Amino acid sequence: MSSDKVLYVNPETKDVIATGNVGIGVTNPTSKLHVNGSIRTSGGLAPSAFWTTTATSADSKILFYDNGGDNWCGFGADTSGNWWLRTGLTTTNLMIVKSNGNVGIGTTNPQAKLHVNGTFYAPGCVVQTVSEIFYTSTQTSSQTFSESVLKLNITPKYASSKIVVIVQYQYQMNSSGASGGHTQIRRDGVIDSASALSSTFHYDVNGTNIYGSSIATATYVALNTSQTLMAVWTKCFPSSTFLVGTTDNGGKSMMIIREIAQ
Fold it and tell me: Out of 85, 163, 215, 249, which could bridge 220 as a Cys pair, Cβ 3.0 to 4.6 Å?
């Protein structure tokens, strides 16, 4: 090969040998290979191929295709210096890294170092919270447990999650002897004796319109992602009536259920 040749094809090995910078679509290449336009490769990267492009007025990107070319994923940068991740199954970015360092998932304008628009799974984090304030009440004089108005549904997002139930409730007792009330938190009507805590009130004196407030808690493993009902069940000791919910003195009750990722 003479010294004046800058591009040479070896006829035996089919190798392309170049001296200096090589430009495709550009007359003044500034690097060893300078392409003005798009590049597509195949075969050597089988079963996948990629295509990349750079431009001054559009996103620069690298896309990885399957052999058929119908499905792809890729990343790129826009003209503002933001990085994005996208697939061929979506027309919007799955994730974006802004030039200020904020990362967005499900949002194109993250307002914090990590901004997630939607649910996410991280052990120890609260996945969802449902709550309700109760303006009605249940009164019982039975010594057998029955469901009260203090109840709330939750549909877990993950079967492995922990479900924590907290109830702050008002009660009113009317007794004619040593008596009291008893509460339990049950899931779909069943109490888990290993984790559901009960509250008990016992009075050794007669009395009417005895008011009070208490907290009951229970913890369950979700087990599935079906809707489940958490409810307070109540019963009385002999010679009394027991009211929970909204009492005559205006007291109201609240139930909070949290799903916590495990």
Answer: 163
Q: Compute the distance between CA of residue 108 and CA of residue 93 in angstroms, rounded to an integer.
A: 7
> Alpha-carbon distance 236 to 231, whole Å?
17
Q: What angle do CA 24, 27, 28 make, to 5 degrees?
A: 105
Reported as a single tens digit per residue, the pLDDT across 108-165 is 888 889 888 887 778 888 889 999 999 999 998 888 889 999 999 999 988 999 999 9
CA separation for the pair 174, 210 (Å, rounded): 6
Q: What tokens appear for 169 in the block?
A: 């409730």
Burial of residue 107 (CB within 10 Å: 0-12, 13-18, 19+) is: middle
CA 167 to chain centre: 24
Phi-psi region of 20 (alpha: psi -120 to 50; beta: other; left: phi over 0): left
pTM as predicted: 0.62
Rounded to an integer, the average pLDDT of 14-38 is 80
Phi (first) and psi of residue 191, to 5 degrees = -95, 135
- As a whole number of angstroms, the distance between CA 140 and CA 242 comes to 5
Q: In this structure, what token pair is assigned to residue 154?
A: 């939750």
Q: How many CA atoms lie within 13 A of 134 on its CB side?
A: 23
